[in-house]
Design goal:
The structure is a single chain. The chain has 252 residues and is of the alpha/beta class. The protein folds into 2 domains: 1-77 and 162-252, P-loop containing nucleotide triphosphate hydrolases (Rossmann fold); 83-161, no CATH class. Helix content is 44%, strand content 23%. The strands form 2 sheets. A 6-stranded mixed sheet has the order 6-7-8-3-9-10, sandwiched between helices. A 4-stranded antiparallel sheet has the order 2-1-4-5, covered by helices on one side. Adenosine-5'-diphosphate binds at residues 11, 14, 16, 34, 36-42.
Length: 252
């Protein structure tokens, strides 16, 4: 269970995260939506430790992650996708996976090695298969399509066995077909791994189709939470977000 309690973060005068409290049940799949600048990425950056909260708690099974360094938060079980392909362009898919696990273990210290070597390989294999990358194991990251690079990012997060997986716009920059392929994979890994998945997505077709639960952020605050049906009919959401989106679509 991931419990966010009164989480706040300001940048100068901007309250990017403003007293946010939310529960994410084990094994849930939640979409976070909201207009540009609503605080979606900041919310994720606080949970992963990339940003330090001004106030509040981030309780993973009762243990507060607030203020901990990112590698420690990863080891507690909160994973996120990184821009791996741009960090290790010349490593192959398989090398990238193994390097990431190795780096995590070195940070943890050899005495606290998380997974034995054989198990590491099994994990890397399993994650590559789950994301459909096993057949591309010998390709270098730089030569993968944009969609496959993103899948590699997710595979890398998965190999560290997260309890909670955070995905910030996994479909960003993709065409329609690639987008659905990505989101089908996200849904599939959620169903198979039974982990808690929270993803930020601005394509409402995708959100309403695959997310059983939706959180709407606006100006750093929670505007609404609920099922797709409830969010679709929520007046405040329509006014702040969905309505204006439709309008923008109609004008474009
Ligand atoms: N590192 C930062 N420094 C200053 N302001 C920031 C920083 N990160 C985010 N912000 C501001 O916080 C608000 C929320 O940003 P962000 O979390 O990126 O929104 P979203 O992901 O929903 O588009 C915006 O007003 C943004 O300009
Ligand atoms: Mg963002």
């Amino acid at each position: 269970m991931l419990e966010i309690r009164a989480l706040s973060k300001s940048f100068g005068g901007v309250k990017a995260t403003d007293n946010v409290s939310l529960d994410f049940a084990d094994g849930s799949l939640t979409a976070v939506i909201g207009p540009n600048g609503a605080g979606k990425s900041t919310f994720f950056n606080l949970i992963t430790g990339a940003l330090r909260p001004d106030a509040g708690q981030i309780l993973l099974n009762g243990v507060d992650m607030a203020g901990k360094a990112p590698p420690e938060i990863v080891r507690h079980g909160i994973g996120r996708a990184f821009q791996v392909a741009s960090i290790f362009p010349s490593l192959t898919v398989e090398e990238t996976m193994l390097a990431a696990v190795g780096a995590d273990q070195r940070r943890a210290g050899v005495m606290r090695r998380r997974f034995p070597l054989v198990e590491t390989r099994d994990r890397a294999e399993h994650a590559m298969e789950l994301l459909g990358l096993a057949g591309k194991r010998n390709r270098t990251a730089a030569t993968l399509s944009h969609g496959d690079q993103k899948l590699l990012d997710i595979a890398l997060a998965l190999v560290l066995e997260p309890k909670v997986l955070l995905l910030d716009e996994p479909t960003a920059g993709m065409g329609t077909e690639e987008r659905w392929r990505m989101i089908d994979k996200v849904r599939e890994l959620w169903e198979k791994q039974k982990i808690t998945v929270v993803f930020i997505e601005h394509d409402m077709d995708i959100v309403f189709k695959i997310a059983p639960a939706i959180v709407v952020l606006c100006y750093g605050r929670i505007l609404a939470t609920g099922t797709p049906e409830a969010i679709r009919r929520n007046e405040a959401v329509i006014e702040a977000y969905l309505g204006s989106d439709d309008h923008a679509g109609a004008v474009a």
